[in-house]
Amino acid sequence: MFGLFQKKKKLEGDVVDLLEEYHTSPSRANNYIGSVYFLIVLHGTSTRVGKIDLRIGSNEELFYAGNIGYRIDMDRRGHGYAYEACRVLMPAARDLYSMQDLIITCSPDNIPSRKTLEKLNGTFLGTKDVPESHWLYQRGETVKNIYYYTL
């Protein structure tokens, strides 16, 4: 899955491209979850609009944290870039990392993220309490809306 001298990926979309920054291999320190981290840039440019990562695998931690996490830069919000970045990353999760499905979550009060996840046409699994032992709970995120996507 992760080669020592693997060339960094560039995933191209119609609106945004994803430029691989780095990846982490599964290890005990990260609960055996490998991740790939990308910059989100406007298509065909180097103009950064945010970041997105793919967490590879399926376990209880990812049920609450999700397989995809994104952050759009404050001055770039409101243009649908998170949606477009997910549209680029989801087929790559299937084709490059052999994932058949994934989970994306958001806090219930994060309306823009909720709208993004609904627009991606996943199945809403519900609003779930995060277990107290989970790292999200430890940083104050105690409830998550959970969406399931078949790739």
Please explain how this structure is put together.
It is a single chain. The chain is an alpha+beta fold and 151 residues long. The chain has a single domain, classed as Aminopeptidase (3-Layer(aba) Sandwich), CATH 3.40.630. The protein is built from four helices and eight strands, in the order ββββαβαβαβαβ. The chain has helices spanning 60-65, 81-97, 111-119, 135-138; strands at 10-12, 16-24, 34-42, 48-56, 68-72, 101-106, 123-129, 143-150. The strands form two sheets. A five-stranded antiparallel β-sheet has the order 1-2-3-4-5, with helices on one face. Residues 1-5 have low confidence and may be disordered.
Key features?
about 150 residues, alpha+beta, Aminopeptidase, five-stranded antiparallel sheet, three-stranded antiparallel sheet, 4 helices, disordered N terminus
CATH topology: Aminopeptidase
**Quantity of strands, as a count:** 8
Total of domains: 1
Q: Strand count, sense and closure of the main sheet?
A: 5 strands, antiparallel
Strand portion: 35-45%
Estimated structural class = alpha+beta
CATH superfamily: Gcn5-related N-acetyltransferase (GNAT)
Order of helices and strands: EEEEHEHEHEHE
What is the oligomer described by this structure? Answer: single chain
Strand order, largest beta sheet = 1-2-3-4-5
Shape: globular
Q: Share of helix among residues?
A: 10-25%
Q: Which architecture would the CATH scheme give at its second level?
A: 3-Layer(aba) Sandwich
CA-CA gap between termini: 18 Å
